[in-house]
Amino acid sequence: MADHYHENCQALLGSLSEYIDGELPPNLCEEIEKHLEGCENCRVVLNTTKRTIDLVRVEPAREPIPDDVRERLFLRLNLDDFLEQKK
Amino acid sequence: MSDSTTQEFSLEALRSGDRAEFARVMDAYSAPIYRLGLKMLGSQQDAEDVLQNTFLNALTHLKDFEGRSSLSTWLYRIASNEALMLIRRKKNTVNLDDFHSEETEDVPLPEVFVDWTALPEDELLSGEGKNALDAAVNKLPESLRMVFVLRDIEGVSIRDTAEILNLTETNVKTRLLRARMFLRERLSTYYGERLAPKERTNG
Fold it and tell me: Cβ–Cβ of B177/A48 closer than 8 Å?
C-alpha cells in the first residue's frame, strides 16, 4: 500500500495536522481538497486521523482530581486550612 | 487550563504570599496537571508526585514569576519538567537533552488504510476501544507524548506548547503530526482487525 504514496500524498501528509486544525491558508486548503477528491487513501488517512483526535479529546471528561489526592496535596503544601473552600 | 482562567487570579496577591489565593490556583489547575502526570507516567502515585512537586516548586518560585507568560503556561512548564525528571529518574533512559534535540522532519508513511470512522462512538470509547486508545498513547515516545498531551488532550495552543516545552513552533508541529500519525496507525491496525475478522489468523 505504501507504493501508493505519490509526491502529492506526501505533501498532504506534511500539512495534515495544520489542515485538521484549520491553520492553513485557503489556497493550500483548496489544493488539498482537490487532491482528496481523487485519492481515497488520503481521505481515509485524513478521516481516521480526525477521528483519533476527537476520541482523545472526548476522553478526559474534565474530571476533578480525586478527593484524597486533593487532600494530600493541600496537606503537603500546608494549606489544609483551605480544604473547605472548594468552589 | 485556558488562559481565561488566569485572569481570575491576582498575581500581586500570589506574590505577596496570599495563601487563600494560592489554594484557589491549586483548585483551578490541579486537574490538568494531575492528568498530565497520569498520561506521562502512567501511574496514579507518580501523577500525584508530579502534582505535589509542581505546586511546591511554584510556591517556592512565585516571587520570581514576572507574569511574562500566563500563569497556566508557567505551571505547565514546571509540571512538564517535573514529569520528565521523574521519567528520567525511573527509567534512567530518557535525558532532557534528547527531549530537546531537533529530530528529523520525517513522518512515517501511513500503511493501514482501513476506514473505521463509521464505528459507533460507544464502541470506540467503551472498554476495549478505550484500552486500545490508552495503550496507543502509552506507546508514544515521551517527546511526542508530551506535545500530544498538551496540544490534543489539554487543548493548549501550538505557541504556548512551544513556550512550555522550550521548543520551536515548527518542532512542536512536527512532533504533533508524528504523534497523531502514530496513534492513527495503531488504532487503524486495531480496528482493521476487528472489521475484518475473517482475515485474522487463528494462531
Answer: no
On the question of pLDDT at A1 being above 50, the answer is no
Closest chain B C-alpha to A35 CA, distance in angstroms: 17
Give the whole-angstrom CA distance, residue A8 versus residue A6.
Answer: 5
Q: What is the amino acid identity at position A68?
A: D
Which residues neighbour A60 within 8 Å (Cβ) at sequence distance 6 or greater? B35, B153, B154
Which pLDDT belongs to residue B39? Answer: 92
Q: In terms of pLDDT, which residue wins out, B103 or A21?
A: A21
Dihedral sign from CA coordinates of A53, A54, A55, A59: positive
The CA angle B38-B109-B118, to the nearest 5 degrees, is 70
Dihedral (C-alpha) A29, B182, B89, B60: value to the nearest 10 degrees? 30
Domains in chain B, CATH or no CATH each: 3-94 (1.10.1740.10), 102-199 (1.10.10.10)
- Scanning the structure block, which residue is given the C-alpha cell 489544493? A31
Q: Is B82 helix (H, G, I), strand (E, B) or coil?
A: helix
CA distance B168 to chain A (A): 16
- Of the pLDDT bands very low, low, confident and very high (cuts 50, 70, 90), residue B6 is very low
